[in-house]
Amino acid sequence: KAIDEYNKIEENNGKTVALCEKKIMTYLNLNDTAKIIEEVDELLKSDTTEINNILFAASIYNYILHDSLKAVSYFDKAYDLDSSSDLVISSRLTYFSDTNDSIALHNEIENAIKNPDVSIESKSTILRQLIDVSYNDSDKMNNIKEYYSLLSATHPNEGIVHLESSAVLLYLKDYEAANKELSLAIEADSTNEQYWVNYINTSTLTEN
Fold first, then answer.
1. DSSP string for 136-157
2. Rg of the chain's alpha carbons, rounded to an integer?
3. Under-50 pLDDT residues of the chain
4. What's this model's pTM, rounded to 2 decimal places?
C-alpha cells in the first residue's frame, strides 16, 4: 500500500510537508477525514514553530476540510510567529482574497505596509499584484492609490515608491498628483534618469 511506503520513508527521513501532502491525498481518495486530521496534527507536533508546517495545516483545513475557523487559527499562528514573512503575508492575502473577506484583506495590506520589518520590495510586490487583478476596475485602483499614499508616507525617501505611486495616479488621470509624486522621487534620487523622463512627460499633461 502507498501509505505503508510513505511511512517507511518517513521513518528514515522524518516528517515533511511534501510527504505529508502525498499521504493526505491518499486518505482523501479513501474519504478518510480522520486520518487527514491525524496526519496534519502529527506534522505540526514534529516542529511546532515551523511556519511551512503551520501554513500547510491552514491550507488543508481551508481547501480540503473546509473548516475556515481552524484555517484562520493557523494563519494567525503563523503571523504571530513571523509577521514580516513574505510567505506568511502572501498566504494570508490569498486566503482573504479567496474568501472575499475585503475587510481582513484591507487590514492585512495596511499592516504589511506599516510593518517596518517588511521590506519595501515585498510591499511593492503586494501592491503590484493587486494592480494586476484590479487594472480594469477604477474603484479598486482608487483603493490602491490610497495604499500607495500610505506607502509613500511610510517610506518618503524611496524614489521607487513614488514612481510606482505616480503610475497609479496617471491611470486615474490625476496628473497633478502624479507629477508631485515624481518630484518626490527626484528629491529622493536626482540621478535617476527614469524619474526625470517621467516627470517631464507628466508635466506636459498638467499643462493641457
1. T-HHHHHHHHHHHHHHHHHSTT
2. 22
3. none
4. 0.86
